[in-house]
């Protein structure tokens, strides 16, 4: 544990203005944030400071060349006020994988982990206890160094900001299988949590929203024949009783929820296939009734059931089932995350 993390407390708290019974996702922010800079070739020791606006030079490279990566995590408080994270080292490792791809310096593990734990201790009151709510944690690193030269910056800023949050989606979502645009390509940055990956999705997603869908299902950039991801989630399809999800690649984020669901489903005796999945197969399964479920999986959305999908001008509805894999797996994973069930996998991490 780094024992010299300086804590500069906010003069007042905003917590009394927050309606913890009606939390939206990522809308109000806790009193403090963790911050440190990379300067002169090294990371400075992180500090906990009041949550505040940043001051950046207009030439800061983040604005021009988009060097920015982030993570998404959650902290949960159980009925005994214990605070838990879910597989946090995987988020730390993935942040560095993303940073490396964007030529951003990697962070030391103790700066991330000890910094996060200290921040959660300072803002403990902000961690919701109510079922379905949690403290959404957003670690991010961006190029705060200046200059118009198109090359990596010489200064970076690492921040962890947090937001008490409710559900990301309310209810089931209707998705559109993408035929033209791509979110990622071979050799690109699709496997990284790079800010620009999301910017590139907004326009095609808005076109889908205008047509009455909430999300785009991304297909491979080359042929648009393979199902890859669902917006900011990995995607699972249930055909008869088998759960299928695509293999991770250069183009697909290695989701922590995705890999946990694969392990959980296998442990429950659900047949799981990690293999390429064609749009053709999903459309045929929808037509012959063997397509039972589709759902997205990610930290923010947890497991988000899909009500139906559109493809080449036709809408396909999924059946309304009584007992779904989506609901049983969501209960299994959230029970583990919130310390309501045993954690045979060793995923839960106590913050103390
Ligand atoms: N895919 C993308 C593009 C994402 O942004 C996310 C969200 O983090 C995921 C998948 C799911 O990843 P995880 O389960 O690690 O949150
Ligand atoms: C997450 O699931 O944590 C994400 O990062 C998705 C985000 C884009 C809202």
Automatic annotation (TrEMBL):
Its cofactor is pyridoxal 5'-phosphate. One of its GO terms (molecular function) is L-leucine-2-oxoglutarate transaminase activity. The modification N6-(pyridoxal phosphate)lysine is found at residue 193. The keyword Amino-acid biosynthesis applies. Keywords: Amino-acid biosynthesis, Aminotransferase, Branched-chain amino acid biosynthesis, Pyridoxal phosphate, Transferase. Pathway: Amino-acid biosynthesis; L-valine biosynthesis; L-valine from pyruvate: step 4/4; Amino-acid biosynthesis; L-isoleucine biosynthesis; L-isoleucine from 2-oxobutanoate: step 4/4; Amino-acid biosynthesis; L-leucine biosynthesis; L-leucine from 3-methyl-2-oxobutanoate: step 4/4. GO terms for biological process: isoleucine biosynthetic process; L-leucine biosynthetic process; L-valine biosynthetic process. It comes from the Bacteria. Transmembrane segments: none annotated. Acts on leucine, isoleucine and valine. This is Branched-chain-amino-acid aminotransferase.
